[in-house]
Amino acid sequence: MPEFPWSLCWCAALCVLPSVFAEDASLLGGWQDVWLFRLFLNVLGYATIIIPGYFLISYFKRINYLETGRGICFPVIKTCVFGSESKTGLLDDVSPAARNESESSSSARQAVKLIFCAAGLQVSYLTWGVLQERVMTRSYGASEVEGSGERFRDSQFLVFMNRILALTVSGLWCVLLKQPRHGAPMYKYSFASLSNILSSWCQYEALKYISFPTQVLAKASKVIPVMLMGKIVSRKSYEYWEYFTAVLISLGVSMFLLSSSTDKHPSTVTTFSGVVILGGYIVFDSFTSNWQDNLFKYKMSSVQMMFGVNLFSCLLTVGSLLEQGAFFDSLAFMMRHSEFAMHAVLLSVCSACGQLFIFYTISQFGAAVFTIIMTLRQAIAILLSCFLYGHAVTLVGGLGVGVVFLALFLRIYARSRVKKSSKRAAQTPVQKV
C-alpha cells in the first residue's frame, strides 16, 4: 500500500496560509484579527488549563486517591475525578409520568402547550440568529461625523457571555427543582465543553466571511458529519434512507453555494476561510453531540448536562480571555457602545432560554415534534435574514434550499414511520403453540 503523501499536504498548507493571512489582514484591519491566529491563541489559552488538569487527574488516579484520600478536599476531588459509582436516578428527560400526563390531558391543553413551545423556540432562536448576524457583521457607533463606526472582533467573548448566563440559569434550575443523583466524573464534561466552545467560536467567526443563510444551510447539513462521528465514536449503524437524505442535503447545499453571488465576498481566500471555519464548526459540533450521548449513560438530566458543560466552558473561556487581555478590552467595548451591551446580553438570554425550551419541548412532545419546529425555524431564519440584511438568493440557490429542507422533512417522516413500526412489532402478542 503506497504511503500517503504528507509532504504534499504540508506544501499545500504552506502555500495557502500566507495568502490567508495576507487577505484576512487586509480585510479585517490587522494580522491580529486573522482567524487562524485568534484560534491559535484561544487553543493555547485552553491548553494552559487543560494540560495541568490532565496531569492532576492522572496523579490522583495513579495514587488511588479514592481509597487513600482524606481531608476537606476529598469530596471535591472525588466528584471531579472519580464521580459516583451509583448510576441510579431519572432515566430520561422523557419520563413515563410526564408522557402519561401528556396523554391524559385534554387536547386543548396540549395544543396550548405545543403553541407555547413552538413560539418559545421560534422567538428565542430567530432573535438569537438576527442578533448574531447584527453583532458580527455590522458596526457600532457609526455616525455622519465619525464615519463607519467600530466593529466587535472577539467571538470568544460572545461565547463566554452565552455560557455564563446558561450556567446561571441551569444552576438555579438544578437548585430549585429535584434532579437525579449525579454520578459522572466532572472532568468528563470538559471534552464536550472544549468542542462546544470551538464550535460556537467557529459559528460566530464564520459570519465575518460568509452570509447567514449559508451558515444556516451548513448547520442543516451537519447530519452528514454527525453520522460519520457516530460510526467512529459510538460505532452506530444507519439505515439506507439516512444515507439517501444525507446525499440530498449535500446536493442542496452544493446548489446553494455554487449559485451564490460573490458581491459580498469577492475574495476566493475569504470564501475558503469561511468554508474551513464552517467545516470546523460542523466537526466540533458533531463530536459534542456524540460525546454527550455517551455521558447520558450516567442517567443524568439534560439540565445537569447543561450545567456541567457550561461550567467548564466558562472556566476555559474566561481563562483564555484573561491571558490574552481580551476580557477587559471587550468590557471596554461594551462601555463605549451601550447598544452592543444590550445586544450581547439579549443574545445570551435567547441562547439560555432556547436551551430550556428545547428540554421542555422534548419532554412534552418528543424529539420528532422538536425537530419539525427547529427545521421550520431554520427556513424562517433564512427568509428573515434575506429580508433584514438584503442577501440575494438566485433561483438555483432557492431550489437548493428547497432540496435541503425536503430532505430534512423526509428524515423526520422516515424516522417516525420506523418508530411506529417498531412499536407495533413490540405490541404484537406472540401466539403460543
Provide a descriptive summary of the structure in words.
The chain is built from 17 helices and no strands. By secondary structure, the chain is mostly helical. The longest helix has 33 residues. It starts with 5 loop residues before the first helix and ends in a 6-residue tail after the last helix.
Which term fits the overall shape? Answer: globular
Number of strands: 0
Mean pLDDT: 79
Can you write the helix and strand succession as a string? HHHHHHHHHHHHHHHHH
Q: Number of helix segments?
A: 17
Radius of gyration: 24 Å
Strand % is under 5%
Could you list the spans in which at least 5 consecutive residues all have pLDDT below 50? 1-10, 19-23, 86-104, 264-270
Distance between the termini: 57 Å
Report the helical percentage: over 70%
Largest β sheet strand count, sense and barrel closure = none
- Structure classification: mainly alpha
Summary of the model, kept short:
The protein is mainly α and 433 residues long.
Helix-strand layout with pairing:
Layout: H1 6-28, H2 35-62, H3 65-68, H4 74-82, H5 96-104, H6 107-137, H7 155-176, H8 189-206, H9 212-220, H10 223-233, H11 240-259, H12 268-295, H13 302-324, H14 326-336, H15 338-365, H16 367-389, H17 395-427
Helix pairs in contact: 2-13, 6-15, 6-16, 7-8, 7-13, 7-15, 8-12, 8-13, 9-11, 9-16, 10-12, 11-17, 14-15, 15-16, 16-17
